[in-house]
Amino acid sequence: MRDAKPNNEKKLTKMEAAERPAGVRRANAPRIPGASVHTSLASEIGLRIVRGDYPPGTILPNEAKWSETFEVSRSAVREAIKMLMAKSLLASRPKIGSWVEPKERWNLLDRDVLSWYATSPDREVFLRTVQEFRHIIEPEATAFAAMRRTDEQMAEISLACREMGEATNLQERTRADTRFHLAILRASGNDLLVPLGVLIESAFDHLFTYTTRELDDLHHVQKLHEAIERSIRLQRPDAARNAVRKLLANTDEVIQSR
Question: CA angle at residue 252 from 143 to 134, to 5 degrees?
Answer without folding.
Answer: 35
